[in-house]
Amino acid sequence: MFDDCIIMAGGRGTRLWPASNARRPKQFLPVSTDSGGGTFFSSALERALALTAGSGGPPGRVIIMAGKNHVPHIISACAAFDPGDRGRMLLMVEPEAKNTAPAVACGALYAGLDPEGSQSRDRAIMVLTSDHIIEPLETFLRDAAAAAALAREGKLAVFGIVPGRPETGYGYIEAGEALAGGDGGVFAAASFREKPGRAQAEEYLASGRFYWNAGMFAFSRSFLMEEFRRLAPRVLSPFEQLEAPGPAACRLEQGLRILDNWQGFAEAYRETQAISFDYAIAEKCRAVALVRARFSWTDVGSWDEYVKLLKDTDSEVYRTGTRNCFVDSDIPVALCAVEDLIVTIRSGRDGSPPLALIARKGETQHVREILEQIKSKGRIELL
After folding, report:
1. 350 lies in which domain range?
2. What pLDDT is attached to residue 116?
3. Is the dihedral of CA 190, 194, 195, 199 positive or negative?
4. Which of 5, 98, 146, 344 has a 20 to 30 Å separation from 369 between CA atoms?
């Protein structure tokens, strides 16, 4: 289906603070789904391996883009897969956070290099998020097949989620005319819209033309390189100056190849433009097709949503007179005569600052206000 899959595994996922923080972002938190346990990230790995399984040909590669703080979590997650699957994975360690456009550009550029450094044939590539719940896998793969066909036709394929409510926290994609293929679920993308206000979101929902932007997309490598050169040369050009990485650029840890010594890579990252892929490419791209998703997609953007996905935790909790409370803590917690609370405590035993969050269920969207207060006091180490 796809020759390569790029997983975006950076980011801090602050909406699930303090469990999600700079040392252990949301994508590495545990989650229980219909298909079993694991983490958000390990589920993304399973999707990527299925997308690149290579029916009728050799299996493809899974390129993981992440920062230095994420490396131990990624090594641990990848170690759970069998050696054959692990052999298809490559972790590219970003020297610094520069948003999603540089990560996609760098991953796609690398995908075109074979071990000898020559340009391979054109490749179909899928970019996946690492912090969403997507089920069932079979349905996702059917929709991804439609995206793969569009990518090979020279289009940027994006996924639109049918909105179930007037959500103000997501970006939207407006569907234009229907396109051939995809069982009637493929459209030209008429426009991309930023997170709307409540009234605008209600209009989007009522119109039936707008979809939530799932943040995943597919393309052919040659098409994307042309679009980067045309629309965002400041992003791509520093990476195009790099020579193909030699054997010394990679190291092997627990069977995972880690690319963290590519000559000139850190300098290229310093020079590249910090910008999101949507702003740099998707919103201006000359040929964008929207695939209406038939799979279930959950962003898990608050503790209220996350709690619903956690069947249990390993927390040691003592209760009396309590009702409908959830606890996620690495130290013992006692609750007396309280109800409808979410309690999250991190003791700091991993070297990070000790932190605690106590919120009433249904009100956890206010976590973002707490984070703004922390930033305003200059306590960035707490994030």
Report:
1. 312-382
2. 41
3. negative
4. 98
